[in-house]
Amino acid sequence: MSTNDLDNFIRSLPNLPGVYRMCNESNEVIYVGKAKNLKKRVSSYFQKTQLPIRTAAMVSHIHHIEITITASEAEALLLEGNLIKQYTPKYNVLFKDDKSYPYIQISSHAFPQIKLYRGSANNKNNYFGPYPNSWAAREVIQHLQKLFMLRTCDDSVYAHRSRPCLLYQIKRCSAPCVNHISEKEYEKQIINAISFLSGNEQHVLDDLRLQMNEYSNNLEFEKAALIRDQIALMQQVLLKQSVSKNSTEDIDIIAVAHSEFYYTVNWVMIRSGKHIGDKTFYPSNTDQVSIDDIYEAFITQHYVNNIVPDTIIINQLQDIDNLSVWLSEVAGHKVKIINNPIGEKKTWWNNAFKNAEFSLNNRLNQISSAENRLQSLQNDLSLDFSPIRIECFDISHTQGQDTVASCVVFDHGTPAKQYYRKFNIKDINPGDDYAAMAQALERRYSRIVKEQGQLPDLLIIDGGKGQLNIAKEILATLNLTDLYVIGVAKGEGRKAGLEKIILPIDNTELFLKQESPGFHLIQAIRDEAHRFAITGHRMKRSKTTQHSVLDEIEGIGPKRRKQLLVQFGGLKGLQSASVDDISAITGIGLELAKKIYNHLH
Fold it and tell me: Taking residues 380-395, what's their average pLDDT?
């Protein structure tokens, strides 16, 4: 954009709130910002006053600017957060969090199921959360199973059970599937579970005590003892979870720790006075940014698509008023941001900050260790470049069947799992590992060449000279002869630590010292590729086995096979079903049901 064009553009900007997008010559969005006044904010980037180095670098790459006018600054904040997630601009602080948070779902069934749930909520079911990770949600579900004996099986399995499952035997389910509990009694347990999840534990305890006394008065001592144990277990669970006996509100605590170049954010979730978990984030693009920038980036990006609590506790942020207004608009209720907390809330924040500091120190140690391993690997292989991005391939199969190839990616010495890929290998002779490797490499790198994607600095092939030669041939056909590729062959007796490195020039063999950090990195990458390949192979083999067992039965085609697996929740559910259960399926008569049952048993 020429100076004249820029001046004209800035003069044309309105004095209104909105979002601006800085774009480079390639039309890539390199920065997204929001403004109370677009004209003032955008023009500030082009004043003659000294700009911070980071901002000046960004301005030097601006080719043109796009704007979107919004009705309010709060709306601009919302749009900014969404656009940052969409474009991941180079000069914005980024919080990578590509997984939806888990909820606990209680279904609308007559005998509701309780389960972990990810995705958008609907009005039919009850949802509680979100939880910071699946482990935290599953722990709560386990507590609910112990306390209220609610079912966790899918509806298809529930509908076809003829006898109680193991969970009933260990007192984790009341077996509504076989009428061991009435709908009315089960509903009481559901109501108590919902009260428990909503933070009304005292109400649940009072209700249980009334039930216990009622059973005792009626001389039903066994039932009274069960309720007594339920009360004791609930008190034990509450003692472990509680962080505040005085608070029933939903609170998030956000603490930021930083070193010279790195930041960590610890996000703590307190729901109805219970600490349900925390999660640590490692933002990127943090060069020359302030703690205020980190707080604002986290809040605007994190709460765009997540539930906003009643209160958020932080420790340092200038512009809390606008953020509070925006959060209230997003949440649909008033949201209070507490800056510089005191008393009990200060203690909570201090604990969150200690966790952030611990995570930061751990991260710095990992980075230092990874850098040492990369430097060692560069020296061991006599490379004139640092192998920042490394990809490794491995093949897995069982006697040539269900062959899967894996590709794992390490970036700066650590796994970059978002770039992992699995390849289902087709149309080769069973057990032909060379053909499998060739197919995986050709599919991977022909696509990268076509889409101008990122190539690795170093390619590792799990295999000896033959596999390495195949890799070099495939790379040559794709004009990728500059890509440095090595093989890792198993040593004598296939013992770990005795592996040899096959170099690309003349297939020279290289034995690295076992204490070499670079050798440890190669082992770690090779082992990860092996693990990922085996996981993919087992999944594929499981599907094949499940299908082939039913395919062997005369009268079972693809439609009936799918119908049976869906109705019984998979092959295990079908195997545990009786002849009567199977014959009850539409289109499956008694004779075919007997045939299926006999074949599976």
Answer: 93
State which amino acid sits at residue 82: N
Q: Which helix (H) or strand (E) holds 458?
A: strand 458-462
CATH at 510: 3.30.420.340
Is 130 strand, coil or helix?
Answer: coil
End-to-end CA distance of the chain: 75
- Is the same domain home to 257 and 236? no
Q: What is the mean pLDDT of the chain?
A: 84
pTM (predicted TM-score): 0.61
Amino acid at 247: S
Domain hosting 562: range is 552-600
Instruction: Look at residue 412 and tell me if it is in a domain.
Output: yes
| Burial zone of 298 (CB within 10 Å; 0-12 exposed, 13-18 middle, 19+ buried) | buried
Does 350 map to a domain?
A: yes
Provide the token pair at 237. 């669970």
Last residue in a domain, options 347, 362, 377: 362
d(CA 429, CA 432): 6
- The single-letter code of the amino acid at 351 is N
> Tokens in use for 341?
């907390």
Q: Which two tokens stand for residue 215?
A: 């059973």
The number of folded domains in the chain is 5
At position 510, the amino acid (one-letter code) is: L
State pLDDT tens for residues 126-158. Answer: 888 777 777 778 888 888 888 888 999 988 888
Pairing of strands 500-502, 509-510: antiparallel
Question: Residues with Cβ < 8 Å from 205, sequence gap 6 or more?
Answer: 231, 234, 235
Contacts of 508 (CB under 8 A, 6+ apart): 502
Answer yes or no: is 123 within a domain.
yes
**Mean pLDDT across the stretch 49-72?**
87
Check residue 429 and give its pLDDT. Answer: 85
Torsion of CA 308, 311, 313, 314, to 10 degrees: 60
Measured distance CA(514)–CA(522) in Å, rounded: 11
Tokens standing for residue 319: 């512009």
Give the tokens for residue 330. Answer: 């997003």
